[in-house]
Amino acid sequence: MQFTVITGMSGAGKSTVLKFLEDMGYFCVDNLPPVLIGKFAEICFSPESGINKVALGIDIRGGDVFEELFKEMDLLKGMGYRINLVFIDAQDKILVKRFKETRRKHPLVDHGRVSEGIRLERSILEAAKKRADHIIDTTNLLTRELKEEVRKVFDADGQYDSLIVTVVSFGFKYGIPADADLVFDVRFLPNPYYVGELRELTGNDREVSDFVMQWEQARDFMVKLLDMVEFLLPNYIKEGKNNIVIAIGCTGGKHRSVTLANALHQALAQKEYSVHIQHRDLEKDAHGK
User: Fold this and answer.
1) Which residues participate in ATP binding (predicted)?
2) CATH code that applies to domain 2-153
């Protein structure tokens, strides 16, 4: 029996994930009160049920439910059942945009700002995210891409052996990404900021990318970085890690880090991993280094 609990931020795509799982043959129930999970599991696990894959959607609409959820999950695990918790997430600015597009109010605020509801919800869901067996970030995913991620994660035998790699460029002047697993500093490379015609461009522009990669130390760095990452990722999978965030930083997160992050993303995308790219600080400072 494969028993999975789907939770996460409102607007991140939990209902969409449940629909995909239903198409994959899961018996799906949305917003089941956690107090009923034990009884529901008992029914599902009975030989005559005919159910072998179950997904439950649990979210903030149920009120203060997560302490009870953890209690029920721990009880089932203590009885020998395999229970997986999957957290669906997205960046706050994307969640705000989605709420505005659908003209829905956040479930935690009746008359306040959506951003305040998101802030409060993150605080409430912090423990659930920490306990998650797998986190799916839908920030940069189209619907078809999310469907592919779900397909990769929920493979036939229920093993969570798919690895999602996120490559993030950033500027050290704005701080290191809090969720980074691996951090690399490329401030040793010549800086396009000091080349007049390149200053207002970014690492997404061919002129800047060519400038950065013309240097031998940049090319050597990429060879060594890719070699190390390709060694680490299979070993992370063996240890049960499902999400890796690789952060590459320069001073302002606009030129060098963007170029190298794009190069790493392109190289890893040719492998068997699911790879995403984020340029965290690209637009923060129009004149940043």
Assistant:
1) 8-15
2) 3.40.50.300
